[in-house]
Amino acid sequence: MQTNKNDRIAWLKGPAAQCAVPAQRQAHPQRLVLLGAPGVGKGTQAELLAVRLGACHLSTGDIFRAAKTLSDCERTPTMTQALDYMRRGDLVPDETVLNLLIERSKCLCCGGGFLLDGFPRTVAQAKALEKCLKEIQIQIGAVLSYDLPLEKIVSRLSGRRTCPTCKAVYHVDTRPPKMKGICDACGTALFQREDDRPEAVRVRMDVYEKSTAPLADFYRRSGLLVSVSAEGTPEEIFERTMVALQKRQNGVSQKS
Ligand code: AP5
Fold first, then answer.
1. Dist. CA 62–CA 60, nearest whole Å
2. SS3 state at 120
3. 193 is a catalytic site residue
4. What is the pLDDT of residues 120-151, one digit of tens each?
5. pTM for the complete prediction?
6. d(CA 25, CA 205)
7. Is the beta carbon of 119 within 6 A of some atom in ligand 1?
């Protein structure tokens, strides 16, 4: 499995930490948002896109999962509360998420570009992102919206296994590691996410319909939305994404 060489430590741990291998500066850095229901495959696509585009995969879910590995005295009360929301499948309050983003706004200026995965998740978060990017004079290139029928999403979630060390994502049937239960990239034992339990999945799907699905309309109105079918293998979806991005880029440059 290909993985992004950048360790993303500044994103995962906050501004006091520095990436050991910073993303390489790109001539035309891509700045993209990935939208879609939990389990549709955003993280999988972000990994593939990160390798091809040289952009950094910035997932807010990964920040919370990284905080889980901290001891009780290292973790702030706000973060402990955030992890409770996550365990249930609920959204973490906007204020907490936005504080994390503001602390990490340096990552949005990264010369490699960025792939925001799992953020924004509410219209309030999208408006806050817009404001933050305006202040640092950066624009989003496109918002990729991935669509898949619910029953396929549920099967993707129930078979997911994740590496706690390098964050690589597998699936027991469709993307199995070479050795059962062991990460190909770093040899760590894989685990099943707590929020992939059926009761948490139900809450996540409801929350998605209520809070996150309206974001597609928000970005359609700003002319940024690019819809991509999430049917097929990860590689097929990736190629479909690249074609859609190229089409959009050609359209944008013809207009300007
Ligand atoms: P987060 O980590 O963002 O999770 P999510 O959005 O629910 O998305 P997932 O990571 O579950 O799925 P994915 O679309 O990335 O799919 P993946 O590629 O892994 O958020 C977790 C929680 O954190 C939230 O519930 C909330 O509590 C909190 N949170 C985070 N951000 C927040 C925010 N901004 N505001 C408030 N709260 C926030 O793929 C899934 C599986 O399918 C894998 O096993 C994969 O191998 C497999 N797969 C992928 N593609 C394919 C394919 N094409 N064919 C077959 N299998 C495939």
1. 5
2. coil
3. yes
4. 999 999 999 999 999 999 999 999 999 999 88
5. 0.92
6. 37
7. yes
